[in-house]
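so ive been stuck on this for like two days lol. basically i have the seq below and the ligand is magnesium ion, smiles is in there too. i just want the complex predicted, nothing fancy, no docking runs or whatever. if the output looks off dont worry ill sanity check it later, just need somthing to start from for the group meeting slides
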Amino acid sequence: MAEPLVDIVARSIYISLAAALIAFTFGALISLLMLVTPRRLSEMLIGVFDALVGAPTVVVGLIVYMLIYPGGPLGFLKLLYTPTALIVSQALVALPIVVTLLYRYFEQLWSDVKELVLSLGAPAGKVYPLILRESPPALIAVYLIAFSRAIGALGAVMVVGGGIEGLTNVVTTAIALEVLLGNYEYALALGGILVVLTVGLSVVARAIGGLVWR
Amino acid sequence: MEVRLEDVWFSYDGRRYVLKSINMEIKGGGLHVVMGPNGSGKTTLLKILSLIYKPTRGSVIVDGRSYWDLGPAERDLVRHHIVYVHDKPILLRGDVWYNVSLGLKLRGFNNYDYLEELIKRYGLSELLKSSSRSLSAGQRRLVSVIRVLALKPRVLVLDEPFNYLDSSRVKILLEDIIAMAESSLVVIATHYVVRELRDNAVKMYELVEGSLRG
Ligand SMILES: Nc1ncnc2c1ncn2[C@@H]1O[C@H](COP(=O)(O)OP(=O)(O)O)[C@@H](O)[C@H]1O
Ligand SMILES: [Mg+2]
């Protein structure tokens, strides 16, 4: 008998929340660093991240696999087929979109708020509190987008997780497996949940983001 | 106050100069009008006068001191007296009251009497609780104009301030501008002739392809 649906969904959500958090944290750091690097270089880097947004997740999984399989450079960590491996791979899948969204957002926000503060004859230091006040909805939106990218990353979790019941079986791997076994209804139910989680969250994220993205 | 531009050149891309050898002196009070077709450099010139953009070459002398050679704290002090109204208003997330009182708040003022008078005068009272995102172009303009009029600056720089305003608001704003110019310096950029401005101007400038014809 297949693993209870709730367990799979709960595991998926937990792993993807963690992956999104990592992607968000590193993505925010990278985008802020890029804002203070010379423009020529940061425009080049953002081009790279733009291209990576569409990278096949199975390739991301493969790269992580090469690092953590027993003979690989990080093999001693014994991460293959563990939830940690899933979290890392999903975080890598979500990272590029976090970087590109936050970079563009902060670039625009910084220039708008700076011009506003200067035009009002206010002290230049007022830029920082205003940026902090302005950005939370956009940050939440980007986190949710990262989550929805992470949870949908079938290729990556298949390669490094293997869909082991009770351990690394997540919604995407379970769907793939149940279809092979002919359990179409079960697969469809999981598929419905995944659609609600990804598409639904994306819609919510863009609505929240729309509050600030002009 | 006195602001003097000495041989000012400006380029956005490091190749083409959009302002060429500008010499300009505004001091005391009175209305100064900068005219010129779209793309002639009015906005760029006004942002340099307002200490928002740093010239690529040349100096901006405020009350005898070269502004861009000052330290950050001294720059804040000088800029305190000079405000600029964007041709495309910049509003932040929040309601109209937050945006219209932002200038006063950033300066640490908490006397809103004159601001409230202006809000009534321009007919914005009903809108105070509306989200800044829901405003029309004309309403956005009013918010951005009122929030600087409330500051009673010594130097007021307005970029195409009449765009999108209805005729009754244009009339009120013209009255306020002309009244302000009795004690302060007012600089206005416009691409079309407004009779009341010409009749009241102490000086008219014409900008053609980045060069000034005084
Ligand atoms: N942010 C910018 N980056 C590059 N070029 C710009 C920018 N802003 C204005 N320009 C160019 O500078 C010239 C002058 O523009 P502007 O000062 O806005 O003129 P005006 O206000 O008279 O219409 C135009 O050719 C415009 O294309
Ligand atoms: Mg302009």
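The CA atoms of residues 105 and 206 of chain A lie 13 Å apart. Residues B 12, 18, 36, 38-44 surround adenosine-5'-diphosphate (ligand 1) (CB under 6 Å).
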